[in-house]
Design brief:
- The complex is a heterodimer of chains A (67) and B (514).
- Chain A is mainly α and 67 residues long.
- Chain A has two helices and no strands.
- Chain B is mainly α and 514 residues long.
- In chain B, strands 1-2 form a two-stranded antiparallel sheet.
- In chain B, helix 4 crosses helix 16.
- Chain B is globular and about 70 Å long.
- Chain B starts with a helix and ends in a 20-residue tail after the last helix.
- Classes of the chains: A mainly alpha (67), B mainly alpha (514).
- The interface between A and B is large, with 35 and 43 residues.
Chain lengths: 67, 514
């Protein structure tokens, strides 16, 4: 049989964590800038690239936490 | 004619054709059952689902159109990056519920679920028709990807001769989809993804280095293209457009029938969840490909007389093929172009299967032949997958390409109108089925009007008080759809309109295989 369902509180906390990269990605004023640039790559581009990795890690951790 | 490229291309194309037909023996089962032909028996594990969903979401057209948008419009084209990174947490939270309820009740399509949840064949029909309408131009668009690379290899014959390679490619695709069902694209997607990754890695390492590195490339882009236009007095400008394009696309994507088909073919909830952590590998590839739009600007492919005729015919969609022709050795151009063409076949196959499933289950079985056996259903779906493909081919051959692009844009604004019924229905059936149907009708009309009034641009300048808020039409129209559904539900509940039976129970949405 499948694992027992996680408690409601644990689930809610994880949902909030999962949606942090989600809402960061649409909060445009945060990253629509050139500096700090990374080896000539403007912040706008490298920040969103790093955010892909962050979102993937957070999703993977949620899976490991059995959410 | 570019013979080395064409030779490599034909060899790789031949390889996937063989795979497509071999797939019928893969995990052999009775393909005269829709569950087997149309969903691969719901037995795909983590790795197969990763390739299948990757092949499904990241189509050839994505790999051509995203860099083309960045090439033409700059930073706004990058909305595909927040879109793909927001997608996975959202799907992780919401869609295992759809898998569970579908597995429990044997639903093959989203409309099957709607039928069971709301007890309304009419609402199920509306959802099915929306799915089919949104999918058809999407299949046609995959053909554009194949068309561009075939032309780029030097096939420029007039009339029928010029179209012949495309017709042959599609006939082969139709044949193995007919015999092998969802197993064919699942197996072929492995080859497709390997080729795509090889091509992307080669393109992002070799080409920028020859142009002086990424720093130099970004320094050469005009400042107004490099960042989004900032809000001005009473206008949210590109900020709102960027955010709503990403958000609307996230909400819409997994409502498409081909995505639901791939999702339901997986063997457990865990397969879906694991994939939501593993699929972002494709997002990284897509983000890197988007950079190629700028690389193409700096490489001045647009001014190259060798490509002038192609840019005239295919517009900015020729930016990436041009870049490859210019910087890769001829044989590797063959690999890259095969990646694009095979990358079109995989989603085209899944889309035609998904559209066929919808028609068979929610129109044929529901209205035309209620007595149909599972074997009749499988037979009808196979036949329909052929008809759908012939239709898409005829569309591309006889109608200007721009129409397919415009209709695909409309398709996105239409499919999102099924969101209140399907996604909210996964949590509650508080919304009344007639309110949902009327909300859908408002959303469909409003989104069509918004898109057409802007001459088929995706964003609409919404005026609110003395503010102008440019944003994704699909997003605005589904908001209105939702507001109408809620308001009418309150009215209908107050009027004590009849309720219908719910086939599902709360535990079904958490159900998993043992």
């Amino acid at each position: 049989m499948a694992e027992p369902a996680p408690s409601k509180l644990k689930r809610t906390v994880w949902y909030v964590i999962l949606f942090v990269p989600f809402f960061t990605a649409i909060w445009v004023p945060l990253f629509n800038r050139v500096e700090p640039s990374f080896y000539g790559i403007p912040f706008f581009y490298w920040f969103q690239f790093v955010l892909i990795i962050v979102a993937a890690i957070v999703t993977g951790l949620a899976y490991l936490a059995k959410i | 004619m570019n013979w080395p490229a064409l030779t490599v291309f034909v060899i790789l194309f031949g390889l996937v054709t063989v795979l497509g037909f071999i797939a019928v023996r893969w995990r052999a089962a009775d393909l005269n059952h829709l569950n087997e032909w149309g969903l691969g028996g719901r037995r795909f594990g983590t790795i197969v689902t990763w390739f299948l969903l990757g092949g499904d979401l990241y189509t050839a057209y994505t790999f051509i159109a995203v860099p083309a948008l960045v090439f033409g419009a700059g930073a706004i084209g990058f909305f595909a990056v927040p879109y793909t990174l927001m997608l996975y947490p959202f799907v992780y939270v919401v869609y295992p519920r759809l898998w569970s309820v579908a597995h429990k009740h044997g639903y093959v399509t989203a409309s099957d679920f709607v039928r069971g949840r709301y007890g309304s064949p009419l609402l199920a029909l509306l959802i099915a028709v929306t799915g089919i309408l949104a999918t058809m131009p999407y299949i046609a668009l995959q053909l554009v990807g194949i068309q561009v690379v075939i032309a780029a290899m030097g096939f420029t014959g007039e009339g029928w001769m010029g179209d012949l390679p495309l017709i042959v490619a599609f006939a082969i695709l139709a044949a193995y989809t007919y015999t092998s069902g969802l197993r064919a694209p699942a197996l072929i997607s492995v080859v497709k993804d390997i080729l795509i990754y090889i091509t992307v890695i080669a393109a992002i390492t070799v080409i920028p280095a020859e142009l002086g590195g990424y720093g130099h490339i970004f320094a050469s882009i005009a400042p107004d293209k490099l960042l989004l236009a900032a809000p001005t007095d009473h206008n949210t400008s590109a900020y709102g457009a960027y955010a709503t394009l990403a958000l609307g696309s996230v909400l819409a994507l997994f409502l498409y029938p081909h995505c639901i088909t791939a999702l339901l073919s997986s063997s457990s909830r865990g397969v879906i969840k694991r994939n939501m952590a593993l699929l972002p590998a494709y997002s990284l590839a897509l983000a890197l490909l988007a950079f190629l739009g700028y690389v193409a600007v700096v490489a001045h492919v647009h001014d190259d007389p060798a490509f002038a005729a192609y840019f005239k015919q295919y517009g900015n969609n020729f930016a990436v093929p041009a870049l490859m022709l210019k910087f890769f050795p001829a044989w590797f151009v063959g690999v890259a172009f095969a990646a694009v063409a095979i990358g079109a076949l995989v989603p085209a196959a899944i889309m035609s299967i998904a559209a066929a499933n919808l028609f068979t289950r929610n129109i044929y079985k529901e209205y035309l032949a209620p007595q149909a056996t599972p074997a009749d259903e499988a037979h009808m779906a196979k036949l329909l997958s052929l008809i759908v493909k012939v239709g898409a081919l005829a569309f591309i051959l006889f109608v200007p390409t721009q129409y397919a692009i415009n209709l695909q844009l409309l398709g996105g604004a239409w499919i999102i109108q099924t969101l209140p019924t399907v996604v909210i229905g996964l949590y509650t059936r508080w919304l009344h089925r007639w309110a949902l149907a009327l909300g859908w009708a408002v959303g469909m009309s409003l989104s069509t009007w918004m898109v057409v009034s802007q001459q088929f641009k995706p964003t609409f300048p919404l005026h609110l008080g003395d503010w102008t808020l440019p944003g994704y039409s699909a997003f605005y129209s589904v908001l209105m759809n939702f507001i109408v559904a809620v308001a009418l539900t309150l009215v209908f509940r107050a009027a004590k309109l009849a309720e219908a039976a719910d086939q599902t129970s709360p535990a079904d949405y958490e159900h998993d295989v043992a």
